[in-house]
Amino acid sequence: MKRGLAVVALCLLLSLTLTGCWDQLSLKKQLFVDIVGVDYAGESKRLAVSFVIASLREANQGGGKPSSLYMNATGESLYDSATRINQDLPGILSVQQTRLYLISPRFAKDEPLTGLSASGQFISNPLYAYLAMYDGDLSKLLSKKKVHDQTINDYLIGVLDDQLKRGRIPSNKMLHYILGGEELVNDFALNLFEPSGEGARLAGTALFRDGKYTGIKLDNEETLLACLLNGTGAANQPLNGQVEGKPYTVQVQQAKHDFRFVFNKEGLREIDLSLKLGVKLVEDGHFERKHTKQTRAKMEKAIEADLDSMAATLIAKLQKANCDYFQLGHELAAYHPKLYKGMNWRVQYPKLAIKPNVKITILNTGVLE
Predict the structure, then answer these.
(1) Which of 93, 111, 228, 281 lies 20 to 30 Å (CA to CA) from residue 53?
(2) pTM
């Protein structure tokens, strides 16, 4: 197995080989790694691994102040890097409670992630850790002590937690990659951080094909729309757009998605993706302030057209990346196996007619309630 394929598997193995059982080692000797960052060292294929270790300052009975310890090492493998750190630290690294694995774009582009499913064989694995990408200097980011009065680990993980609760980002939990199987993790969109001021911010998602980063990204609005088209439940997400150059904002209250394969005698003709949204109109810079049935219908049609255009741009990016994020190939194989077997899905997917159809129902009677 390639070194990149086994990154998380090695992390999990590390938790077994370096920490042992809880009844054999004192809790005080455990160094709980909150974040693991993985990049290449310089122009080589050696791994530059960063560890952010959670700790408490001024610890006393009942609490203390959250703090973090940053360590990094370069090695032939993750295990080698961790071993080098353990030689310099009193205590033993433990990844049993790691909350985030953060990888660099060049590592993601070069090393497939489909092998993550193999790590399910280990007993102590951080199944609920996030997997994300950072388009910047990993060591510079993870060595920061504070971002907006929070430790760097609490800040990054807090951003992911909040956005996931709102339904604005894909989950990207290790559970998916470990237990989903290779067929489910080939094409996906990984949450993407980028530098911002003294810290970092979410900048959409990075598209992966066959487990490799394609270099193509979705921005934040496209990521939200992709989540809705993929069946993420509504949670008051704001959707922003423009009609005739003027902005509008709606809050999604209800969302229902579906897809339909359309055939002719030659085979698959097109795929229709439908999305029905019940929304509240929050900001309206274009339409009249007094809403009648006619003006509301006009607004619905205009917003539908705008979102259809956004969805078409999103789908074009997915097809350019040859990233089957919506897993349409798996759906076709499940419901029409004979047709799927006669296709070369990877070759034909970028050329398929995939048409979005967004339907809007405005639920409120005024611009603001």
Answers:
(1) 111
(2) 0.84
